[in-house]
Amino acid sequence: MTDPKIALPKIALKGVRKQFGPKKVLNGIDLEVGKGESLVVIGGSGTGKSVMLKCILGLLAPDAGSIMVDGVETTKLRTREREKLLHKFGMLFQGAALFDSLKVWENVAFGLIQGEHMPRAQAKEIAIAKLGAVGLSPDVAELSPAELSGGMQKRVGLARAIADEPEIIFFDEPTTGLDPIMADVINELIVQCVKDLGATAVTITHDMASARKIADRVAMIYEGRIIWTGHAGDIDHSGNAHVDQFVHGRAEGPIKMQVRAL
Ligand SMILES: Nc1ncnc2c1ncn2[C@@H]1O[C@H](COP(=O)(O)OP(=O)(O)OP(=O)(O)O)[C@@H](O)[C@H]1O
Questions:
Q1: Alpha helices in 37-108 (DSSP H)
Q2: Is 46 left (phi over 0), alpha (psi -120 to 50) or beta?
Q3: Which of 89, 158, 166, 211 is in Cβ range 3.0-4.6 Å of 40 for a Cys bridge?
Q4: What is the pLDDT of residues 26-59, one digit of tens each?
Q5: Would you say 109 and 120 are in contact if contact means Cβ atoms under 8 Å apart?
């Protein structure tokens, strides 16, 4: 008999809804991410990609629906259980979100020292090793984030995201603000780090070059629902007019952009 756990998705969302006042942002999200899979979520600005990630992390409570991680329902967890769950996650935020008051290595080691109460010397050793994994030399460890270029800051953010060797990593717009070559370097590092860790990855991005490089599978969100999922190699012949328009960046098509300020 096969073990049912083998087929268990790492993350499974079913009927997830979230609205702010009258504004319905998530309208019944159904999505599964397999263990060790790299899923890229694409979709226009303001379609709810970040809200979806925040719901998975428990930073926002969905109004309805189920979110399972490793087969465990997470929407009703108590604080302590949620803290335990959060140890499974690493996150690379849009804009890297580093603390300028801390040195680079202290940023990387932040979760190890604060979350796991690891001694500073040991955490520093790990931080320097993780900086090495993203191509930064030990002398960078002593600098302040303000002294680094945008690409280097992203590398530091990536080193921080992997420092704790998380099972799941979220990447929120990892290439925003980078030139195309540095974006490609970051994409390659993401692929390498995720592979080395054997982690499950969920990336949200508008950058199709990044999606093509990072994704095993792509999901498109539109009007609060996942309207298409498919293998990364299928995005150019998805058979879905919304995906086609987005992937090729056409102004004309079924997706109507809000051009006036709200
Ligand atoms: N805490 C909040 N309170 C009220 N509205 C919110 C809140 N968080 C998000 N929203 C709204 O939800 C909608 C979706 O936001 P979200 O940040 O998820 O979009 P996104 O798809 O990640 O966009 P982008 O690609 O531009 O980052 C937006 O209209 C936003 O204003």
A1: 49-57, 79-86, 104-108
A2: left
A3: 211
A4: 999 999 999 999 999 999 888 899 999 999 998 8
A5: yes
CA distances to 91, 111, 251 from 166, in Å = 9, 11, 39
Number of helices (H) and strands (E), helices first, in the chain?
9, 10
Q: Per-residue pLDDT tens for 106-118?
A: 999 998 898 788 9
Residue minimizing CA distance to atom 2 of ligand 1: 20
Atom of ligand 1 nearest to the CA of 60: 1
ipTM score: 0.96
Sign of CA dihedral 200, 204, 205, 206: positive
If one residue of 24, 40, 50 were mutated to test the ligand 1 pocket, choosing by the most ligand atoms within 8 A of its CB, it would be 50
Q: Whose CA is nearest to atom 16 of ligand 1?
A: 48
Q: Ligand 1: which of 16, 19, 42, 49 to mutate, most ligand atoms within 8 Å of CB?
A: 49
**Cβ(249)–Cβ(80) under 8 Å?**
no
User: Phi/psi at 34 (nearest 5 deg)?
Assistant: -75, 160
Residue identified by tokens 């290439």 is 175
